[in-house]
Amino acid sequence: MKDAIHNPLIIQSDRAILLEVDNPRYEEARDALAAFAELEKSPEHIHTYRITPLSVWNACAAGHGGDAIVATLCNLAKYPPPEHVMTEIRDFASRYGRLHITRDEDGLLLTANDPALREEIARHEKLRSILGERLESGTFRIDPVHRGILKQALIKIGYPAEDLAGYCDGETLEIILRTKTRSGMPFSPRHYQSDAVDSFHVNGTARGGSGVIVLPCGAGKTIVGMTCMEKLQMSTLILATNVTAVRQWIAEILDKTSLHEDQVGEYSGKVKDIRPITVSTYQIMTYRKHVDASFDHLQLFDKREWGLIIYDEVHLLPAPIFQITASIQARRRLGLTATLVREDGREDDVFALIGPKRYDVPWKILEKQGWIAKARCEEIRVRMDNKLRMHYATADKRGKFRIASENPRKLAVARKLLRRHQNDPVLIIGMYVEQLRHIASELDIPVLTGSTGQAKREKLFADFREGRVKVLACSKIANFSVDLPDAAAAIQISGTFGSRQEEAQRLGRVLRPKKGENQAHFYSLVSHETVEQDFAMNRQLFLCEQGYEYHIRHE
User: Fold this and answer.
1) Is the CB of residue 381 less than 8 Å from the CB of residue 83?
2) For 191-361, which CATH class?
3) Do 372 and 366 contact (CB within 8 A), yes or no?
């Protein structure tokens, strides 16, 4: 360890890891940690990561074993790592796959080769009602209906089961990716998209067929989904975040595959067209007439023999979809997302019910390869005038956040940024509709909110893409699955408290490759010395984890 003093990591006894930013091996360490640790804090000079059981299990599922994680930490550590932390990492890793769900001619089985572990799960109060007959071989019979519930219960007690029971084959459907799009452009999946598909498919074995692919916005997650469809050649149900995203999926499928219009259907509020490939929204799937009513449209899961279900933006999966997903574990499941971070803390349910992380690539690597734009992230701290600051000082916590978010001085800063980007297409994104409408009125630009009709949304998105509209103000509807490939800059005037996932998605609005220098700009306007500034630090965590620096200046 003679030269280790120059290494960038300090590993602490509570599984926290301190990473020195001003260290020659910073980028190497940051990219390594992304595979098995979670970023918690990112001030200027020292970033804090933490190793958790779930972060280790996701790493194991992606092919990083406990010994490999320990070796990486030892290689990058400034001081000898605490021995008990290395032991805990190996213990977490050993728990992944110690239990197996398999299938025989009579149904499903849960197998634990460790006799003590068998006794522990047999006596656990939450498992007793799920486990069926105990066989002489030490395995347990499982009702297929309980397959998902069992996996949820096992991960909660710290023993994620590896599901090797396989899947039912859905309706067959010939799907061929075009070598030229309908519009005549050459097309083929990029190398990392093909790698992601291979990691999900695993040559068609029971070890594949379920899991999550993590790629940045603009990196072509839709193409990953279509390539998986081609691999499986089966009828597919796709769930997306909104109707705009549904229609983008349909347009992409028709443009880049051999499928025809009569094979691809939209299932939304106004259209109920069930076809071999059907694209729907989480909103319609979770619709019910009142709080005690049943969910009218969950039956879509059983309308056809789906061979694959794709969950777009899987980090937004609502609770009722978790419930139905628990009951359809025999169907292949693909989750697509830019970040596994969930604001409700249910990352372990995604792991248990959709599947583990199968593929992830640091955003900066794709940036260096030119697949996504280079992005400069800038936080601009805006002063409040004295009268507003007094109003802020006397407000409650929620009131303080809104007052800071709607700081009128942000309008002047936005004007200045628009002059800087007068020749670029720019998005202004915010949380509060009245604030957006006021800014849009002052700047004489169109505004899109949740109440904007679908036809008007699509027209404005088309006008923006084709250059007829240079600046567009959008509420949270622009956070997810909206194809705005020509956006060169985004100005975030307000956000959802400390939402890391929202920050990642909003940056994603400008990450699609650009002509020329391939440069994008992301501005976040934050009221100086307020709770909004505190929340902004948390929002930036995910982007710092991916290697983006936030340049801070004051107005």
Assistant:
1) no
2) alpha beta
3) yes
Q: Provide the edge-to-edge strand list for the sheet that holds 519-527.
A: 447-448, 471-474, 426-429, 489-492, 519-527, 374-382, 550-554
| pTM, full prediction | 0.85
Cα 359 from chain centroid (whole Å): 12
Q: From CA 552, how far away is CA 530, in angstroms rounded?
A: 15
Span 163-170, average pLDDT: 92
DSSP 428: E
The fraction of the chain above a pLDDT of 90, given in percent, is: 55
Please answer whether residues 535 and 435 qualify as being in contact, where contact means their C-beta atoms are separated by less than 8 angstroms.
Answer: no
Quickly list DSSP for 333-392.
EEEEES----TTS-HHHIIIII--EEEE--HHHHHHTTSS-EEEEEEEEE---HHHHHHH
In CATH, what is the architecture of 370-554? 3-Layer(aba) Sandwich (3.40)
DSSP string, 487-522: --EEEE---STT-HHHHHHHHHTT-S--STT-EEEE
Task: Give the residue from 394, 351, 350, 367 showing the smallest Cα distance to 508.
Answer: 367
CA distance 215 to 359: 8
Residue 338: closest CA among 366, 360, 371 = 360
Distances (CA, A) of 97 to 60, 118, 189, 306, 486: 9, 14, 32, 27, 44
Question: Which is it for the CA torsion 288, 293, 297, 300, positive or negative?
Answer: positive
CA–CA gap between residue 380 and residue 383 (Å, rounded): 10
Return the structure tokens found at 252: 């992409």
Task: State the Cα–Cα distance between residues 116 and 118, nearest whole angstrom.
Answer: 5
What's the DSSP call for residue 186? B
What is the chain's alpha carbon radius of gyration, rounded to the nearest angstrom? 24
Looking only at the bridges linking them, the beta strands covering 277-281 and 236-240 are parallel
Identity of residue 285? M
In this predicted model, what pLDDT tens digit does every residue of 445-465 receive, in sequence order?
999 888 888 888 888 888 988
Report the chain's mean pLDDT, rounded to a whole number.
Answer: 89
d(CA 510, CA 484): 8
Residue ranges of the chain assigned to CATH 3.40.50.300: 191-361, 370-554
The one-letter amino acid at 542: F
